[in-house]
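stage 2 :: seqdesign
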C-alpha cells in the first residue's frame, strides 16, 4: 500500500492553534485513493523541524509527502511552487532562534521546485469551489526551511501547501481571510488524491507579476 506523509506545525507567533496541524491530524490513518495517510506534527523551529521531518521520511518512506503550514496573511490555499535555500526570520522561532541570511543546507542548490502537480491541485481545488492559487514564494521562515529540507531529502512526490487562518483565529485579526477546518481537510484530501493520480502537471496560467 502506498504511504502519504502529511505534516503540520505547532502554533507560533502568539496563536494558540495552527490550522496546518489541526487539519492534517484529522486525516491521520485515513485511506485516500488506496494510500494510507500518516500525519505528524513539526516544531516551529529552524533545525528541529527538519530533524523531525527527516526522522519521519526515514521511518515511513512516503510515496507522497506534503508539508502544510499556516499563512495568516494569505487569502486562499497557497500551493507552493518553490523553496529557496535561505533562512531569514523576521521574528524568533519557537526556540528563540532568529537566523538571518544563512542557508537551510550549506553547499546545496539555491532552490528546489515542488514535485507535486501544483497546477492540477489548484485546478481540482477550484473545481470543488475552494479558493486556491499557486504561490511563488513560501517566505523565508520555518515553512520555507521545511519545504527546502523536504525536497532536498526527497520523496517521489513532495511539496508544501500554506493554509489561511481558521475562522476562530481570523476573529482576532479583523479583515483576515479564513478557511474552515472542514474545507481545509477537504482541500488536503483533494491535494493528496490529485498527487496520487498523476505524475505530470497541467498547463494552467497561474503566474504572478510580482
Ligand atoms: N507557518 C510558518 C512556520 C510555521 C507555520 O505554520 C511559515 O509560514 O513559515
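stage 2 :: out
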Amino acid at each position: 500500500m502506498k504511504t502519504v506523509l502529511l505534516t503540520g506545525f505547532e502554533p507560533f507567533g502568539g496563536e494558540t492553534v495552527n490550522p496546518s496541524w489541526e487539519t492534517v491530524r484529522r486525516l491521520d490513518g485515513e485511506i485516500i485513493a488506496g494510500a494510507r495517510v500518516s500525519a505528524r506534527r513539526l516544531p516551529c523551529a529552524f533545525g528541529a523541524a527538519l530533524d523531525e521531518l527527516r526522522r519521519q521520511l526515514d521511518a515511513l518512506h512516503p510515496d507522497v509527502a506534503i508539508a502544510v503550514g499556516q499563512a495568516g496573511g494569505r487569502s486562499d490555499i497557497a500551493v507552493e511552487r518553490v523553496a529557496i535555500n535561505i533562512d531569514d526570520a523576521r521574528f524568533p522561532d519557537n526556540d528563540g532562534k532568529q537566523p538571518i541570511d544563512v542557508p537551510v543546507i550549506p553547499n546545496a542548490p539555491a532552490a528546489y521546485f515542488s514535485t507535486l502537480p501544483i497546477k492540477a491541485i489548484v485546478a481540482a481545488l477550484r473545481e470543488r469551489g475552494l479558493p486556491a492559487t499557486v504561490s511563488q514564494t513560501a517566505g523565508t521562515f520555518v515553512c520555507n526551511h521545511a519545504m527546502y529540507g523536504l525536497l532536498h531529502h526527497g520523496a517521489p512526490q513532495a511539496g508544501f501547501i500554506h493554509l489561511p487562518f481558521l475562522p476562530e483565529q481570523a476573529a482576532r485579526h479583523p479583515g483576515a481571510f479564513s478557511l474552515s477546518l472542514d474545507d481545509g481537510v477537504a482541500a488536503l484530501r483533494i491535494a493528496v488524491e490529485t498527487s496520487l493520480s498523476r505524475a505530470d502537471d497541467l498547463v494552467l496560467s497561474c503566474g504572478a507579476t510580482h
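stage 3 :: structure notes
- The radius of gyration is 16 Å.
- The chain has a mean pLDDT of 97.
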